[in-house]
Amino acid sequence: MKVYQAIAEAIVAENTGPIFGLMGDGNMSLWSVLGKDPRVRMVSSRHEAAAVSMADGHFRATGRIGVAAVTCGPGLTQCGTSLICAARNRSALVLIAGEVPQGAKNRMQGLNQRRFAEACDTRYFTITGADNLAEELAEAFYAARVHRGPVLLSLPMDIQERSFDWDFEYRPSTDFLPPMAPAPNEEALEAVVEKLAAAERPVIVAGRGARYAGAKEELVRLADRVGALLATSLQAKGLFAGHPWDVGIAGTFASAPTEELLAEADFVLGVGAELGYYTSEGGLLFPQAEVARIDIRPAPEEIGVLPGLYVRADAKKAVAAINERLEQRQVRKEGFRTAAAREVLDAPPHQYPTPTDGLDPRALMRNLGPALPQNILVTCGVGHYFSFPAMYLAVPEGGDIRFSSQFGSIGQGLSLAIGVGVATPDRPHLLIEGDGSLMMYLQELDTVVREKLQLTVLVMNDAGFGAEVHKLRAKGMDQTLAQWQSPDFVALARAFGGDGVRLEREADIGAAVQRGLKQGGLFLIDARVSPSTVSDPYSKIHFGKPNTAPLLRPAAVA
């Protein structure tokens, strides 16, 4: 047995699921073994960075560790942005890369891979030989799982080819995992109970951690008991949709009514939510409130803009324990659910002018929501356009939307969506992406077709880098420097073996998406949206206009 064959056995034992990657000199021996193993699905991307994003998407969809494999040197350096995005998302991910031996005379593709990994917020592990192979492999996977972040596992090419002359026994990292969410500290939990019992205007902000923990019912029960308003972070968008006291997203994407009410909160409980810079508007969204958080991490990594109480615990278990204690005290009150608050929430929404230079992105999203099936998965990229699905797209109950906003990097949406699609082949899947972002990884449309995935792609096409267009205009600079004539995206989709349609009216979006989901495979919808329409956050931040965004409520087609 060769060392690379033993490595392949270890990867299978780790029960990682599909392996995403691109073959090269540094990983071709390992790839050849895995590619012939009937237990393994290999998904070959067209770019190394896309492979890492796909593995990241697989983790986001399943919570199971993602694995990618690339070659050494330039194959690895391509992956930098995707690694940082995974690190910011706290995605458990192992990137396996070949490495040029330190003593090699030909070091054209040589690189200090440890320094590169550390610059990308990625932990570095390497294989030193056959004697410690099992332990070194398990440590790499253990680190990814326990620390919830990307790990680079470097495989020196000379060591890969050595013989392994005895039986290879491997214990996977899952055999050594500690409990990830300990019981909450009683003293810390009691402090939160006291604050909730005393609060007159409490707010609960649920994040992605609350969704993953299945804490929704306990959170609603708690909010109903203490009279709290229910809000979410961007990543948990729609968790409380339909509840009469749901105020939507807190922070940058908050509606005007939400912003007005949260300014009056006297206590905010974040559950599985970071309550970081964007969720708290730089710490200014809750100016009168004390703050507490419940999260599985040992402690916040920094004091941050909104310090407060902290309870380390599983979200569902901790909130259930809080409910039990409040019930014992017979706490039940009106709290923030007053007639005055109801009046703010029910105020008539602001009416925006209809653009004349393209489709209205707000109307597009309002029309899209009612057309989505109940179990839809929506993956959304990042750019100026993503404010519109964040604030105007009502995802149906049972559906889910994920934003690739970590690191603020465009170009991640398509690759993440492929990883999500591979992980969840039985659910209808829609990607919302910008035109500039899609062009960065257009080649991965071939991966969608080659892997026979169902993916409907809605391109919010403003023929430019919308974020820069509006910022240039705000600065009095030439916005045309960030604009161009758009390519024919439908023709490009067909060239890769898919299909599509150019949207003519906002009201046609529902039928177009339903056609794509029914047809299967790659289906692209080119929506030429108004390049002059400024999103609500940009109007506020860059043009100094007051927030007029309406509260998102599930509704019929406008």
Write a concise synopsis of the structure shown:
By secondary structure, the protein is an alpha/beta fold. The chain is built from 23 helices and 18 strands. The longest helix is centred in the first third of the chain and has 15 residues, at 48-62.
Task: Describe the fold and architecture.
By secondary structure, this protein is an alpha/beta fold. The chain has a six-stranded parallel sheet with strand order 2-1-3-4-6-5, sandwiched between helices. It has a six-stranded parallel sheet with strand order 9-8-7-10-11-12, with helices on both faces. Strands 14-13-15-16-18-17 form a six-stranded parallel sheet, with helices on both faces. The longest helix is centred in the first third of the chain and has 15 residues, at 48-62. It starts with a helix and ends in a 17-residue tail after the last helix.
